[in-house]
């Protein structure tokens, strides 16, 4: 089965060696200049180097068949698990996007502010068009608290949170382990979680979110790169 077909069926794919060792070194040098107060940052797309990386990823031939048509980067979040900031993430779906301003559309709900940005939850039909690229800057094996996904659940739309554990128990879950320079490509609505790291290695992930270009003409995304 082709990677595109597997991705559409399962809602995720793992790609090793998505970027070159030199690209990885360049990214690490940029990240060393970021002083994280918390375990992450949602503002990376304000930085020119990250905008260039977002464009490089959407032009990467390994991602061409997986990203939306005419993709634009609308978010980039840095996550870092360390000895000081080690956490678990319960089962959930990614439901929110960053937008420039509030607007009156009853289909959009759950308005909130995070790190000086405005977020909202769009209808499922919009979220189903988005694709996330989780680029790993460090190795992520079982002991590092990797992403765990429940394959195929992206096809269910928005799921009642109380039913997620039962759904996970019925369908099982897969750990997305990979080496630095690789990426997990996922639909935001896939049910996913992660455990605390058993062995902390400063696991850093750049979580890019891409939307189709025509959707960017409808929704006032905070970023359109």
Stretches where pLDDT falls below 50 for ≥5 residues? none
In DSSP terms (H or I, runs of 4 or more residues), the helix count works out at 6
Compressed to H and E, one letter per element, the order equals HEHEHEEEEEHEEHEEEEH
Rounded to the nearest angstrom, the distance between the terminal CA atoms is 32 Å
- Helix/strand structural class: alpha+beta
Fraction of residues in H or I helices? 10-25%
Strand content: 25-35%
What spatial form do the alpha-carbon principal axes imply? globular
Number of DSSP-assigned strands: 13
Average of pLDDT: 95
Lateral strand order in the biggest sheet: 1-11-8-13-3-2
Summarize the structure.
This protein is of the alpha+beta class. It is built from six helices and 13 strands.
Can you describe this structure?
It is a single chain. By secondary structure, the chain is α+β, with helices and mostly antiparallel strands. 20% of the residues lie in helices and 29% in strands. The strands form three sheets. A six-stranded antiparallel sheet has the order 1-11-8-13-3-2. A four-stranded antiparallel sheet has the order 4-12-9-10. A hairpin with a 2-residue loop joins strand 6 and strand 7 (117-121). The radius of gyration is 17 Å and the shape is globular. The model has no long low-confidence stretch (mean pLDDT 95). The protein has helices spanning 3-10, 21-31, 48-58, 124-127, 164-171, 213-216; strands at residues 12-15, 40-41, 71-81, 89-92, 97-99, 109-114, 117-121, 131-136, 147-150, 174-176, 183-186, 191-194, 203-212.
């Amino acid at each position: 089965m082709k990677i595109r077909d597997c991705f559409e069926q399962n809602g995720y794919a793992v790609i090793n060696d998505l970027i070159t060792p030199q690209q990885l070194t360049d990214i690490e040098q940029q990240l060393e200049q970021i002083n994280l107060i918390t375990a992450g940052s949602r503002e990376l797309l304000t930085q020119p180097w990250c905008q260039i990386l977002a464009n490089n990823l959407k032009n990467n031939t390994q991602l061409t068949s997986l990203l939306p048509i005419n993709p634009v980067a609308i978010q980039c979040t840095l996550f870092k698990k360390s000895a000081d900031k080690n956490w678990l993430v319960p089962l959930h779906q990614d439901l929110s996007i960053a937008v420039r301003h509030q607007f009156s559309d009853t289909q959009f709900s759950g308005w909130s502010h995070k790190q000086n940005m405005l977020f909202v939850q769009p209808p499922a039909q919009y979220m189903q068009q988005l694709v996330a690229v989780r680029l790993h800057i460090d190795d992520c094996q079982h002991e590092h608290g990797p992403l765990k996904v429940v394959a195929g659940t992206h096809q269910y739309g928005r799921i009642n949170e109380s039913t997620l554990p039962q759904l996970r128990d019925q369908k099982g879950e897969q750990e997305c382990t990979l080496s630095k320079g690789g990426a997990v490509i996922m639909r935001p609505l896939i049910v996913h979680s992660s455990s605390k790291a058993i062995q902390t290695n400063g696991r850093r992930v750049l979580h890019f979110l891409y939307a189709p270009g025509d959707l960017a003409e409808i929704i006032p995304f905070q970023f359109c790169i």
